[in-house]
């Protein structure tokens, strides 16, 4: 179906509507954002002598809501200037503008009568054949389109974005019986490729898939909290990173989304699910209703399950006691079982050890301490088992009611609620047959189709064949390839059979067509000796073996890399072994040059946090294929260092290419110096381009991170066809002493203005010294090797300074930089 989307209308400028409008603007579309006309003037409007007929007043709701949305942190828009793509209006004056919109998306309040009335008016102006959809989270689609025209119904469906729409990946598409298949297919494809979403086509059932299963999980957690007498902090400890969920866990997530919204969805499900065997789970507890009556609805008011209060310049946290409806000081529950999850090699190991209640015998003294102080690991295991056994049973019984395919349930929970694995994937990790037996013994039997499946000798919901992940189709009793992923590359599907080399912290995997992938497996994907060895080995294989032609450096973790392993540098710095530090740096710098001058194309595919050494690898690649949500920065100043894995040199080289005026106050290098000195992290693709971390018209973006490695492979093969290696030559324009004097003056001004500490100033002056080429008397072209030598010298001097050691210690022990 050939269809081009140039302009989108969003009807309703509330929390979701404005953020959806921003995300369409992120991808370059023109957006029309409309809302109702205010019924009365504000005091400010009265003072200005305005009337209800003034256009500014009539557009006030859309204007004000958009401006509020643009102030949200994290931002829903890539760059504030992108908001220029959004024009505002109202439902009375501007509906005629819908005639040139390719897609009209409604996001007004969840009220059927309001939606139907609005669509009745919309139909008078909409152009036949244009797409139209609703962002409803649960109102039946058929009831919304009743009495609409045939063309309207054929081009209408539900498009349920999850909040916040820029960051949460799930887009549920809910067609009616009247929706044309090509419309559903087009929106699914468009949402996937252009909006970066995991698009799941759902049945028109209450709350569809994501909220039906996800809200059940939250409400079941609430029930078990009361049953097992667990605190809010304990629940968040047991339902966060330890089981592959976001660190916001259960209650911090509820505060973020809104306690009122959670209660509204749960109550709606309770009212509509008369035949659901677990209906009572959705009944909203009385204490939550009282919270809503009190206005304690979460982060919007800094008070929900947790309460934030600012006193004397610091933020104090308090936790709700549900039985008393009072707040107390926030506590830090200390489960040895949860602590042990940090030592597991995989999510599968985490789940297995949690179910078995395994706690390391080697951590003897801590184990005794926790036993004496009353840490209740037995209760944690009871919670784990009852939650997951009931959760698995509930999910199995919802099929085929909410979906005919198990993978849709898993994808909805992963993409909509941020879990690393969905219910059927977790069930597989714990063992299908063994877990089903335990579920029955605990009184939580699954659906009958599970028994049929096991009786046929099927041992898992998923399996991998020929690089493809396949799911069990319980209706046809056979495995099928997930259709949305059929042509995509996922390393989990290749790792077992196609790993050609590995060491303790990295794998080299052949993903077909002569393309190798090097993935890091070190903690936080930090770059250490083993990772450097692996990248060098991958380049060796690609250069020396005719079966290989290109290399991609990437992984499928949340974050690409948190940078170099500073613990190694810290160890040498502590004993003042400068030669060891310089040797380690030289090894890293040599790798950067190896990447840059390789005889085969090297593509880096970052996603999430790409910091320090992780970004330096990107700066030396032939091309970067970055996920749209990649956050890049050279952040070494935070630990008292400068970028010395070639990062300072690379930014100076990029500034050389971009210099227009030779006077020292105008080159791009000044901006790059400031970005590094402030440890600036690009929070959007546009910022990454403007900071020089990505190159316009050279480096590429993947809106959907699930397509990242596939796109990187395609790019590497395109380059490999006629690849010409880079030529080594002096390619950095050093500005010399005059520029250094200019920069030193600027740094001094920032120091006197209290923007820098004394030690910040010392670090940044060394950074400036390196970026201008050191002691050179004037401008001249120098080699990367010359500048990298300056990097090493400055880095080594800083690394052995006591103040840098204090900064590194703070980062290693507390996970945050120290200003000294």
From TrEMBL:
Keywords, in A-Z order: Fatty acid metabolism, Lipid degradation, Lipid metabolism, NAD, Oxidoreductase
Signal peptide per UniProt: none
Catalytic activity: a (3S)-3-hydroxyacyl-CoA + NAD(+) = a 3-oxoacyl-CoA + NADH + H(+)
Family annotation (SUPFAM superfamilies): 6-phosphogluconate dehydrogenase C-terminal domain-like, ClpP/crotonase, NAD(P)-binding Rossmann-fold domains
Domain 3-hydroxyacyl-CoA dehydrogenase NAD binding, chain residue ranges per copy: 7-205
Annotated ranges, domain 3-hydroxyacyl-CoA dehydrogenase C-terminal: 208-307
Superkingdom to which the source organism belongs: Bacteria
Coiled coil: none
Pathway(s) annotated for this protein in UniProt: Lipid metabolism; fatty acid beta-oxidation
Family annotation (InterPro entries): 3-OHacyl-CoA_DH_NAD-bd, 3HC_DH_C, 6-PGluconate_DH-like_C_sf, ClpP/crotonase-like_dom_sf, Enoyl-CoA_hydra/iso, NAD(P)-bd_dom_sf
Protein name (record): 3-hydroxyacyl-CoA dehydrogenase/enoyl-CoA hydratase family protein
Originating species: Psychroflexus salinarum
């Amino acid at each position: 179906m050939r269809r081009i989307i140039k302009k989108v209308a969003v009807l309703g400028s509330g929390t979701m509507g404005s953020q959806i409008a921003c995300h369409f603007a992120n991808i370059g579309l023109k957006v029309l954002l409309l809302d109702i006309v205010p019924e009365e003037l504000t005091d400010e409007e009265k003072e200005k002598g305005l009337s209800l007929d003034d256009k500014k007043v009539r557009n006030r709701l859309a204007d004000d809501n958009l401006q509020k949305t643009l102030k949200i942190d994290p931002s829903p828009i890539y760059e504030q200037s992108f908001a220029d793509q959004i024009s505002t209006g109202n439902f009375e004056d501007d509906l005629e503008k819908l005639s040139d919109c390719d897609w009209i998306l409604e996001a007004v309040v969840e009220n059927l009568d309001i939606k139907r009335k609005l669509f009745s008016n919309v139909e008078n102006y909409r152009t036949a054949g244009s797409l139209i959809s609703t962002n409803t989270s649960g109102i039946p689609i058929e009831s919304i389109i009743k009495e609409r025209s045939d063309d309207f119904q054929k081009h209408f469906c539900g498009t349920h974005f999850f909040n916040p729409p820029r960051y949460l990946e799930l887009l549920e598409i809910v067609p009616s019986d009247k929706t044309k298949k090509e419309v559903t297919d087009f929106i699914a494809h468009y949402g996937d490729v252009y909006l970066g979403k995991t698009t799941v086509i759902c049945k028109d059932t209450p709350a569809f898939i994501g909220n039906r299963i996800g809200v059940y999980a939250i409400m079941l957690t609430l029930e078990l909290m009361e049953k097992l007498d667990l605190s809010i902090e304990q629940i968040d400890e047991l339902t966060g990173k330890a089981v592959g969920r976001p660190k916001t866990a259960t209650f911090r997530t509820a505060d973020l989304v809104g306690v009122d919204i959670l209660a509204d969805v749960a109550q709606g499900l309770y009212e509509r699910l008369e035949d659901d065997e677990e209906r009572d789970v959705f009944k909203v507890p009385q204490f939550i209703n009282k919270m809503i009556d009190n206005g304690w609805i979460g982060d919007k008011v800094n008070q929900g399950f947790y309460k934030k209060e600012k006193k004397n310049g610091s933020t104090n946290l308090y936790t709700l006691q549900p039985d008393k409806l009072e707040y107390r000081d926030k506590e830090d529950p200390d489960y040895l079982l949860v602590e042990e999850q940090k030592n597991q090699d995989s999510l599968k190991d985490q789940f297995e050890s949690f179910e078995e209640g395994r706690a390391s015998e080697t951590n003897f003294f801590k184990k005794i301490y926790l036993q004496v102080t009353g840490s209740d690991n037995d209760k944690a295991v009871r919670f784990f088992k009852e939650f997951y056994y009931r959760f698995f049973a509930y999910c199995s019984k919802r099929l085929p009611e909410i979906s005919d395919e198990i993978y849709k349930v898993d994808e909805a929970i992963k993409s909509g609620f941020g879990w690393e694995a969905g219910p059927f994937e977790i069930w597989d990790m714990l063992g299908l047959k063994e877990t089903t037996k335990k579920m029955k013994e605990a009184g939580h039997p699954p659906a009958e189709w599970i028994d049929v499946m096991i009786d046929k000798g099927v041992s898992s919901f998923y399996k991998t064949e020929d690089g493809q992940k396949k799911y069990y189709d319980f209706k046809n009793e056979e495995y099928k390839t997930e259709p949305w992923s059929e042509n995509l590359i996922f390393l989990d599907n290749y790792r077992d059979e196609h790993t050609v080399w590995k060491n303790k912290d990295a794998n080299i995997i052949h993903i077909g067509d002569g393309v190798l992938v090097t993935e890091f497996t070190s903690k936080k994907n930090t770059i250490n000796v083993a990772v450097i060895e692996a990248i060098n080995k991958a380049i060796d294989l690609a250069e020396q073996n005719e079966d290989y032609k290109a290399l991609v450096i990437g992984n499928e973790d949340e974050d690409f890399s948190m940078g170099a392993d500073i613990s190694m540098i810290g160890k040498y710095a502590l004993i003042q072994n400068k030669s060891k530090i310089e040797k380690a740096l030289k090894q890293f710098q040599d790798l950067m040059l190896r990447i840059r001058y390789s005889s085969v194309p090297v593509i880096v595919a970052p996603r999430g946090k790409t910091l320090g050494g992780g970004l330096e690898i990107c700066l030396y690649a032939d091309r970067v294929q970055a996920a749209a949500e990649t956050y890049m920065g050279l952040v070494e100043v935070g630990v008292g260092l400068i970028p010395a894995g070639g990062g300072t040199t690379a930014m100076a080289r990029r500034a050389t290419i971009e210099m227009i005026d030779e006077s020292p106050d105008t080159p791009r290098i000044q901006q790059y110096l400031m970005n590094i000195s402030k440890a600036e992290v690009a929070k959007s693709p546009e910022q990454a381009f403007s900071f020089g971390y990505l190159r316009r018209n050279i480096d590429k973006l993947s809106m959907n991170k699930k397509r990242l490695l596939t796109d990187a492979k395609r790019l590497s093969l395109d380059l490999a066809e006629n690849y010409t290696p880079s030529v080594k030559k002096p390619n950095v324009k050093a500005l010399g002493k005059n520029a250094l004097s200019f920069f030193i003056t600027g740094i001094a001004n920032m120091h006197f203005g209290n923007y820098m500490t004394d030690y910040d100033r010392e670090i940044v002056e060394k950074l400036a010294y390196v970026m201008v080429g050191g002691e050179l008397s004037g401008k001249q072209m120098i080699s990367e090797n010359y500048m990298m030598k300056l990097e090493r010298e400055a880095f080594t001097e800083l690394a052995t300074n006591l103040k840098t050691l204090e900064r590194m210690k703070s980062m290693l022990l507390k996970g945050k930089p120290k200003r000294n």
